[in-house]
Each structure stands twice: as C-alpha cells, then as structure tokens.
Specification:
By secondary structure, the protein is an alpha/beta fold. It contains eleven helices and 16 strands. A hairpin with an 8-residue loop joins strand 1 and strand 2.
Length: 334
C-alpha cells in the first residue's frame, strides 16, 4: 500500500466540490504502474466531467486528470517497457472513472504512458500531450492540412488552440485565431497567429473573406459549437472541413444546412480518443510531436501554475477564461 493525496469530488458541481482525500493506493496490477506525480496539466474536459457535462457520467466519488509528468515508483506484472525510476508523461487514453492524475501518486495503465521528451521541463511536459495530439489528430492525421490553406481556430487562446496555431505554422498553413474580446489579440499574434478575429466586434465571415481574398477558409477546428457554428460555416470556402471537438457552448448547435449544401462542407465530430486508443496512429502522433519539440516548432505555453493544495483555485481560474495557454498544478513531489 502507498499513501497519497488525491483530488476527488463526492458530488457534481463547481470548483468548490473538489477536495483532497488521503487514500491508500493498491499495488499496480498487470499492465499498470504507480507514478509519483510531479506536475499535472489541467484540461477543460475535466471541468466538464466535474460538472456532469462530459462524454461519460462520473462515478462518485470521482477522480480527475488526464495529464501529468512524473517518475515510476512501482511496476505491475507484465510491465517490461518501463522501469522504476523512469521519467514518464501521461497521455489521455483512459476513462477518468478508472484512472486520474490529480494526485501525489497515481496508478496508471502503461498504454497511456510515454517517456518524457528530452530538453523540456516537468511543467512543459504536463502541457504537451492533450493539446498537441488533439490538434495533430484532426489537422494532420485526418484533415491533411497543407501549405497555404487557411485554418480557423475558435477559442484560440486555449492550450489546444495555441497548439493548433503552432502545428498550422509548421505545416505552412495560415492560422486565423478567433477570440471573443480584444484583450488577447496581441498575445495570439505573438504566439503565431497570422490573423486574429475578435468575435465581439467583428463579423467572422466578413473578416475571413478579406483575409482569403474571397476564397473562404479551408478548415475549421472548433471546440465551442453552439449557434456560432453557422457563422463558421458561412466563413468556409468550397469543400471545407469543419472539425467539432468540444461543446463549450451551453446553447444548442443548429445545423447550417444551406451552407453545407451550397459549399459541400464536411462536418466531423472528433475527440482525442480516436487517436490515443489506436496504437499505430498514437505512435505516429508521438513521433510528430517529439520531432516538433526537438526542432523548436512546438513549444508549450504555460498560463499559470498552482499547487495541488490550491486545486479549487486552479479550477476557478480555468473557468474564468483569463488564461492564454496551459494551467499547471504542482505536487509536493517537485
């Protein structure tokens, strides 16, 4: 048995339902390891899970957490590819009803682990895999984004949005960031967006027409959905692809029928699990990201760092939407 602080929630609700429980952790079973967690990356999916608005319903009391950087403390039976002392990162490739990384120590399945890339910090390592794999899977693996194409990125200041900007630039495409207010415009330009559309004060389709010389966007990478899906479809060119990978809007998502028919648009529902639960595609994604990190094309952007004891404040900050980049939580192990 190993003792650990574990962040859990015993009822669904706002950030205040999170609490730190002292727990006895069982020894790792077959194909599992026990990881001493150093840093944790926060994701919007975890907020939605805590609220009961995610793809699966929490089994209470529920754990949280898809990402982390840490060191293997124990290995279970059948584990040969990892050893005690290995520095590893956690990839979102499991149900949070089975595993979670919001803890000082966490039992985790080996299929969700990769060795930590060289020359990045623990904080950066906890900010890599959700954002870059999510963007790579849609933009490169499925969408085949190519040089000169225009990519629209709503919620561009999120970690996945910033990852999409970097990957689009690496592919030679034109990333167009969309943000609600002008507060984040200069930061988005600084972090690689070729153009920024402020949706509170600008018409998306009108701006895209100006940017593309009337051609329209080739691809959309949207975590919001809701009524704005119609505006995004209006901004698209012929045969554009629209990836919807989230549901941040609390409003319904009317289908833009006439734009879809008139332009031959492709709408694609997408989540990272399509990639992370397919070993061959996951390996291709990992190799792409490792090369991008080594070359400096990909560089995680850290918005703010909290301690595990301040997990409620960390979730409150995420829900404030002030951040540009990834929110990181450190444990007592760092």
């Amino acid at each position: 048995m190993s003792m650990s602080k574990v962040a859990r929630f015993h009822q669904m609700g706002g950030p205040e339902v999170l609490q730190l429980d002292e727990m006895d952790l069982a020894a790792p079973q077959a194909d599992e390891v026990l990881v001493e967690v150093n840093t944790i990356g926060l994701n919007r999916a975890e907020v939605m899970f805590r609220n009961g608005q995610y793809l699966e319903t929490p089994q209470l009391p529920a754990r949280l957490g898809y990402e982390a950087s840490g060191i293997i403390e124990q290995v279970g039976p059948n584990v040969s590819q990892f050893s005690i002392g290995d520095k590893v990162n956690v990839i979102p490739a499991f149900s949070m009803n089975q595993y979670g990384t919001y803890a000082e120590k966490a039992l985790l399945p080996i299929h969700a682990l990769v060795r930590q890339p060289a020359n990045i910090s623990d904080e950066e390592a906890a900010a890599v895999w959700m954002q870059y794999l999510t963007a790579w899977g849609a933009l490169i693996d499925i969408g085949q984004l190519t040089e000169g194409q225009t990519l629209l990125i709503p919620a561009a200041s999120s970690s996945v949005g910033l990852a999409a900007i970097q990957i689009a630039n690496q592919a030679g495409a034109i990333p167009v960031a969309i943000t609600r207010s002008a507060d984040k415009k200069e930061l988005l330009l600084k972090h690689g967006a070729k153009h920024v559309i402020v949706s509170e004060s600008q018409q998306i389709a009108e701006q895209v027409t100006l940017i593309t010389g009337g051609k329209g966007a080739d691809m959309v990478f949207d975590p919001v959905a809701g009524p704005a899906l119609n505006e995004l479809a209006d901004a698209c060119g012929q045969f554009a692809q629209i990836f919807v990978y989230g549901a941040l809007s609390t409003e319904s998502s009317p289908f833009p029928l006439f734009a879809a028919l008139g332009k031959g648009l492709t709408f694609r529902g997408y989540t990272l699990f399509e990639i992370s639960q397919d070993a061959k595609r996951l390996q291709r994604g990992v190799e792409f990201i490792e090369k991008g990190l080594a070359a400096g094309h990909l560089k995680p952007i850290i918005a703010k760092t909290f301690s595990l004891d301040d997990i409620v404040a960390a979730h409150q900050y995420m829900e404030s939407n002030q951040q540009v980049g990834k929110i990181i939580v450190t444990t007592s192990n760092i």
